[in-house]
Amino acid sequence: MFGQPTSPRFRAALAGTLSAGLVLGLAACGGDDSDSGSGTDASAAAIDCAPYTKFGDIKGKTVTIYTGIVTPEDTPHIESYKPFEQCTGATIKYEGDKSFETQVLVRARAGNPPDLAIVPQPGLVKQLVSTGKAVAAPQEVSDNVDKFWDKAWKAYTTIDGKFYGAPLGASVKSLVWYSPSEFKDKGYTVPTTLDELKALSDKIVADGGKPWCAGIASGDATGWPVTDWVEDFVLRTASPEVYDKWVNHEIPFNAPEIQAAFDAVGGYLKNDAYVNGGLGDVKSIATTTFQDAGLKILEGQCSLHRQASFYAANFEKGTKVAEDGDVFAFYLPGKDANTKPVLGAGEFVVAFADRPEVKAFQTYLSSDVWANTKAKLSSGWVTANKGLDQANLTNPIDKLAGGILLDPNATFRFDGSDMMPAAVGSDAFWKQSTAWITGQDTKTTVDNIEKAWPK
Amino acid sequence: MFNTASTTPEKILQMLAALLLFAAVMGVILFIAGRFGGKRGDKVVAYLYLLPAVLMLAVGLVYPGLRTIYQSFFDAAGNAFIGFDNYHTIFTDKDQLTVLRNTVFWVVVTPFVATAIGLVYAILVDKSRFESFAKALIFLPMSISFVAAGVIWKFVYEYRPDQGNVKQIGLVNQVIVWLGGKPIQLLIESPLNSFLLIIVMIWIQAGFAMTILSAAIKAIPDDIIEAARLDGVNAWSMFRKITLPSVQPTVVVVLTTIGIGTLKVFDIVRTMTGGNFDTSVVANEFYRQTFNADNQGLGAALAVLLFVLVIPIVIYNIRSLRRSEAS
């Protein structure tokens, strides 16, 4: 749901939310989507059909697409396929399934895969390719991706020299939520460097407040928000190059640069003067759900909360999320104003069939035409497709995220824990980060994660 | 027909197809069985009737069981044979030892405390005026799912800081504050947190123990009790010498049943702490290793361990059941 619907942590988080009975938050999620899905046939009508007619006559053919995107976020997806259906006469059969991530592997292994799958992590794409059932993307898709996406994106799903999955949507994680009205009243300004962020935090402390609130509880995925913090700080205190080496295990997890990034995060999260506004001391971070923590901004208990763009949907209905509203976000600044590392995530379209109609639809999904159609239809969705006209994004936070993603000076990096082996990315990194928050020192933490890395 | 159904009519159609298939299979079996007669025929008929159940058990239970044992000797990806390394990990790795320690806490504490509470409660309310109401009260938690119980108790243990005008919302911490103490982050403090989770299980299982034991108490013949009364026993002797020996086989069944349930406990831990803060138990760790850490070998080994731990209790349970049936 939101920008990046089906990352494993998000799904785990979702499960956590459900089981924690915090259905209220969920009910508020994406509540606007149903409105935006209807009455937009006009904008979905006319597209240039030429790129798809060259795949031959595919009238009456069916393409199945299998995803983890379910109600209500599926509506804009299904709507956005209509122009293609009208052009070609083919039918797209959409299947959304909450247990997509395990089921897609089961279906691929059992020889019953869908034609296309929307896969939210590069790691899962690799697993699917290793089943031998996935087919490489056609040339037309590859050309589209070369044209519309930063080349880093293509590398995420290029396996043994073959390119498998065209990116679809993207999301931004390097955001700090704040209250514009509080900033205005107290004369705070949005920081543009890491030093300014620290200075701002100190200033809030001097004014008698707790600057930050944080929460990392998320059922059995507890700890994932810390991994995002650490990833963001590796990109900032070290560099994107070090980040790539770290994610690919070309440098060990306990390398000095990574320890330094952990300590830099510790300067915020393990600093009793900075946390945890209205929620307790440092340890309370471990038991506060990630959904709850940022809400303290609205209660005036804290001023800053670092969380991805999807957090917009967590605020109660009626909260104005805008630059002049109740709550908004700013880009977590780089080391200086000129470096702009962006941590984010996204999803990829993987094919299991190479029939003409499947290829044609893949081509449509990788085009700028689809990106713009989808943008007009949905709220809480962005993409890093360079063909996207930002004017088509409908709400302020999407505009902010879109602006960050498409900034030519920005250096995008995919969420590292989604690319690390599962034993680290969805187990040791989470567990050890949680232990780190509740008192374990940095050295032990990174050593333990390094030990868990599969040999 | 064997594809995943996505719409409701498709699902209903699939269900009908499955029912037809079932009827067809039964028809064939009955037809074949009908062709046999006489003494030997009875035996054949019996085997024929057993066949579907045995086949399904073989496919659904025996094969996966054997496959899990086989898998437990392989590495994380399930490719390389590594002998007993996974088992070695379970009994030497620091985290895994914590898991075993917690499992021991659970298995030692839960069955005995839950059974004791259930027994005492059953005796206390027996033949009292509010018996059915009092019983319903303690039986209610039984009807709640483990996940729901976990959610409820998570609220009971909820923590809010001792800070300005922030109010407690958790019952336990509110009581602590009323008594003049400082609120505690109950679910983080190990090993206290494990016992706090165990309380949830006891809360659920005490009702089960009470129901079964209450029925057993009512089954004690009146003449024994009357004879004891005439001999002038006091309440304690009545409990020690009459009630307890009479319900002893039932106590064993209750203890072992709760014991098995406790060994397999997963939902409460997953809901309340996700296995963090040193609260994981074998069943939770098995899930975590298999699905989160993608370590199928270690996951399988933990599943086998769970299986091995449950077997002796099951055997004991069945034997004592048989003994009580025989007497």
UniProtKB/TrEMBL annotation, chain A:
Keywords: Signal, Transport
Record-linked InterPro entries: Bact_solute-bd_prot1
Superkingdom classification of source: Bacteria
SUPFAM superfamilies: Periplasmic binding protein-like II (SSF53850)
Entry keyword Transport: yes
Signal sequence annotation: 1-27
Family: Belongs to the bacterial solute-binding protein 1 family.
Protein name listed in UniProt: Carbohydrate ABC transporter substrate-binding protein
